[in-house]
Amino acid sequence: MFIDNAGEIDYKQLYAQVLYELREQEAPYWFNNDEVARKLEPFVRTNLFASHCKTYYYEFRNGTRLIHPAIQEEIRALFRQAGWNHEVHFDSYVEDYDW
């Protein structure tokens, strides 16, 4: 299934689809912040793979490699680019020398 957005938007059809999903499939219409962040994570991960190696990404994620402030800002920018409007928080912050 795909969305054809080349032509006019059929708002009645979109409305009918939303009602069907809400009423018949009992699908949640709104996502909480954790669910939205999980849905954006693949976009951020893919872009971090492109600018940094996969090894670094997983070391950042597992906490075995500290994330430099410039990379933290890059991650924030990726979330903003993906539509995240909230502050991006990291597990902890460490002051150290940048060798």
List keywords for this structure.
single chain; 99 residues; mainly alpha; 0% strand; elongated
Protein model, in words:
The structure is a single chain. This protein has a domain at 32-88. Helix content is 55%, strand content 0%. It is elongated. The protein has 99 residues and is an all-alpha fold. The chain has helices at residues 11-23, 33-51, 54-62, 69-81.
Detail the topology: elements first, then pairings.
Elements: H1 11-23, H2 33-51, H3 54-62, H4 69-81
Short description:
By secondary structure, the chain is mainly α. The protein is built from 4 helices and no strands.
What value does the average pLDDT take?
A: 82
Task: Tell me the number of helical segments per DSSP (H or I, 4 or more residues long).
Answer: 4
Helix content: 40-55%
Strand content: under 5%
The count of β-strands is 0
- The multimeric state of the shown protein is single chain
Radius of gyration: 19 Å
- The span between the termini is 51 Å
Broad structural category: mainly alpha
